[in-house]
Design a protein that fits this description.
single chain; 236 residues; alpha/beta; five-stranded mixed β-sheet
């Protein structure tokens, strides 16, 4: 992994826990370590909660579907000094699939494109939280790969990180998650983070919205909000 510059953290009860920092932008700046990403926090221990606070994280954004949250709520909820927000993404897919009402799309890229087409309001809600009065923010879904990967892609794009680096960052999940007990009936792509999946997603954004940042603007995120978030990611 030639561009691997983010830090990986051993947080008791949470997998795939890393920051978005360390990457160089196209303007020669460096991404700060103020945004963190992970898999589910439902198994977080007391030590894990304390470790999260020691990182300066004062806000957690849960991207899981309503069904997933109801089944396994975040253990960080109610912990002193940490604000919790839930913004369900892929809710219409994940909740229905979990209940056996619909089938998964034929590929991960198709699921991502569906998310982008159907969820601009959810993306806006997430970024409105990012623009709020929080020092450092952790966002996560179940595996910290898909919904989390899309939000990470938007943040790194806003920071000015090049597409190849963003795609490589997305691919790291495959070496950080343990899928030994994965249900055999689920599609293989759910347990992969192949570079071509994010490449297809970024190409879709470029062709249909003019890129990641124009998508954010079209979703209704204000210029002031984007400026605040960018200021949290890189030095102005």
């Amino acid at each position: 992994m030639k561009n691997f510059k983010c830090d990986i953290y051993k947080i008791d009860g949470a997998e795939n826990f890393r920051d978005l920092g360390g990457y160089d932008t196209k303007t020669g700046k460096t991404v700060k370590k103020r945004f963190f990403r992970s898999a589910s926090l439902s198994a977080l221990t007391d030590k894990g909660k304390a470790d999260i606070c020691e990182l300066g994280i004062d806000c957690v954004v849960d991207l899981r579907s309503s069904f997933e949250i109801e089944k396994n709520s975040d253990a960080i909820i109610g912990y002193p000094g940490v604000h919790y927000e839930k913004v369900p993404m892929l809710d219409h897919i994940m909740s229905n699939v979990a209940q056996g009402l619909v089938k998964f799309p034929s590929s991960m890229a198709k699921m991502y494109m569906e998310l982008l087409k159907e969820s601009p309001q959810s993306v806006k809600s997430v970024f409105d939280i990012f623009a709020g009065p929080y020092n450092s923010i952790l966002f996560h879904c179940t595996a910290g790969k898909d919904r989390t990967g899309i939000i990470a892609m938007f943040l790194l794009s806003l920071a000015g990180v090049d597409e190849d680096t963003i795609i490589e960052d997305y691919s790291y999940t495959e070496m950080l998650m343990d899928y030994a007990d994965r249900p055999p009936e689920l599609p293989d792509y759910l347990f992969r983070s192949m570079p071509e999946t994010m490449r297809t997603t970024i190409d879709f954004l470029n062709q249909n919205y003019g890129g990641a940042v124009p998508y954010l603007k079209n979703a209704g995120i204000s210029e002031a909000g984007l400026k605040i978030i960018k200021g949290k990611i890189i030095d102005s």
